[in-house]
Each structure stands twice: as C-alpha cells, then as structure tokens.
Amino acid sequence: MQGQRITAEELVVELQGDLKALAEKMAAAINKAKLGRIIADSEEPVRDAHAVFRQQAYQKAIDLLSQRLTQGDFSPSAHSAAGHVEEQGASENHAHQRQRRARRR
Questions:
Q1: How far apart are CA 51 and CA 47, in angstroms?
Q2: Average pLDDT, whole number, for the chain?
Q3: Does residue 105 register a pLDDT over 70?
Q4: Is the pLDDT of residue 79 over 80?
Q5: In the list 38, 93, 95, 97, which could disulfide-bond 33, CB 3.0-4.6 Å?
Q6: In the chain, what percentage of residues exceed pLDDT 90?
Q7: What count of Cα atoms within 13 Å lies in the side-chain half-sphere of residue 53?
Q8: Does the pLDDT at position 81 exceed 60?
Q9: What values do phi and psi take at 100, rounded to 5?
Q10: Stretch 31-56: mean pLDDT, rounded?
Q11: CA nearest 49: which of 69, 72, 71, 20?
Q12: Cα–Cα dist 103/105, whole Å
C-alpha cells in the first residue's frame, strides 16, 4: 500500500459539495436560533450536521483509497509483471517436462 496513498487535495475535491451542505446547515441552524439562545438553539443541529459530514468524509476517503487499490490491480505494469511470472513458470514447466522425458529414455 506504499504507493497507493490518497492526498488531501483529492479529498478536498471530493468533499466540496458535502462541505457546502454542512455550511448551509450550520448557517440555517444559527439563523433560526433566537437571540440570546444562539448556542442553546443551534448546538444540536450543528452537531448533527457535523456527524453526517464526518461519516460522509470518512466514507469518501475510504472509497478513494479503495479505487486507488483497485486501479493498481488492473494497471498495465501489474499485468506485465504477472505475465513475466507466468512466462517464467511456463519455462520452468517446459524444462521439467524435458527432464522427465530424458529420464524415460
């Protein structure tokens, strides 16, 4: 997983819409609160909005990492390395078959 990391910049791009929704919910909760009760009236809705954002952010980070790991499984370099291993195994298999034939003679 060394080369399969995600960046903060990627997360920022992914979370822009969610962050805007969080800001809208916070503004709505604060604006709805009565004067003199801003904290008391807005704290719970803001906390709930943060909980939703936190879950969405974490899920998107995991999804990004999962996509990155999946892409690595299907990269051309991964296939060429696997092909090399298969070719090597085939060469060894042919050599083994030649040795068995030689013993039979």
A1: 6
A2: 82
A3: no
A4: no
A5: 38
A6: 59
A7: 20
A8: no
A9: -65, -40
A10: 97
A11: 20
A12: 5
Q: What does the radius of gyration of the chain's CA atoms come to, in whole angstroms?
A: 28
Given a cut of 50, is residue 85 above it in pLDDT?
no
Phi, psi torsion values for 9, nearest 5 degrees: -65, -40
Structure tokens, 98? 């030649």
Structure tokens at 61: 């980070």
Pair 69, 1: CB distance under 8 Å: yes
Torsion of CA 15, 21, 23, 25, to 10 degrees: -150
Domain ranges within the chain, ordered by starting residue: 7-74, 76-105
Element (H, E) at 94: helix 76-104
Q: How far is CA 46 from CA 7, 39, 52, 57, in A?
A: 27, 10, 10, 16
Whole-model pTM over 0.70: no
